[in-house]
Design brief:
The protein has five helices and eight strands. The chain has about 230 residues and is of the alpha+beta class. It starts with 11 loop residues before the first helix and ends in a 6-residue tail after the last helix.
Length: about 230
């Protein structure tokens, strides 16, 4: 996994590398990006990093795809429930950014490359999801075991950022992955704060539902949805 960095800006090369990894066009790329930012920054700075990463990737999308990235959802949550492998309900071309804050709660996070699995099995995405565009997980994770990556190390006292390809379309070729969080032990009175940003690929010029004031509020907020 990526080494620890306290860098709060991205170089042009870093942005292009992240784009290649996440906005992939084949399963030779992982479909996700993970970075440990250590614990020398604060929460607003961390969320500003997330916003700047979105803008940098949107600029690349405009250059390469003649499209832009818009916000589909933003939030800050106390998240202490384990999940199964899934994609979040979102636009067919969507990218999920999760920012984990320092906590006393131990957890693990995994990514599963179901796209590579179905490619190796020579089955269609539609077949894999039983013909349902609304289905966002599967009943049996066992076949995915060779395609699972654990984000490790995942130090609970650090700021950690995960960006995954959350896309899924039966009509167009997409290269999405599943993600899964496992909370090892809930500690009463302790938070496990998770900053959430869902991005969607749009035509150039489409107005974003979140204006600059809303994004600044996301950066500055001390509120947590519980």
């Amino acid at each position: 996994m990526n080494h620890i960095t306290n860098q709060t800006t991205f170089t042009s090369q870093q942005l292009h590398d992240i784009y290649e990894a996440v906005f992939r066009e084949s399963t030779s790329q992982p479909g996700f990006y993970f970075q440990d930012f250590g614990n020398d920054i604060d929460s607003p700075t961390f969320r500003k990093v997330m916003v700047e990463l979105k803008q940098g990737l949107s600029n690349i999308c405009e250059l390469r795809l003649n499209r832009q990235l818009n916000y589909q959802g933003i939030g800050r949550f106390n998240h202490q429930n384990s999940s199964r492998f899934h994609r979040d309900s979102a636009h067919i071309h969507s990218f999920l950014m999760l920012g984990y804050e320092p906590t006393q709660v131990d957890s693990k996070v995994y990514v599963a490359d179901y796209t590579k699995y179905i490619e190796h099995q020579n089955i269609s995405l539609e077949t894999y999801f039983d013909g349902s565009q609304d289905l966002n997980s599967i009943h049996d994770d066992q076949p995915l075991l060779p395609y699972i990556t654990e984000l490790a190390p995942f130090p609970k006292d650090h700021y950690r950022l995960l960006l995954v390809n959350n896309s899924k379309s039966f009509a167009e070729k997409t290269f999405g992955v599943f993600h899964r969080g496992e909370v090892l032990q809930v500690i009463e009175g302790e938070d496990r704060l998770l900053n959430y940003v869902m991005l969607q690929l749009c035509e150039k010029g489409v107005a974003d539902q979140y204006d600059s004031s809303a994004i600044q509020d996301f950066i500055d907020t001390t509120q947590v949805n519980r």
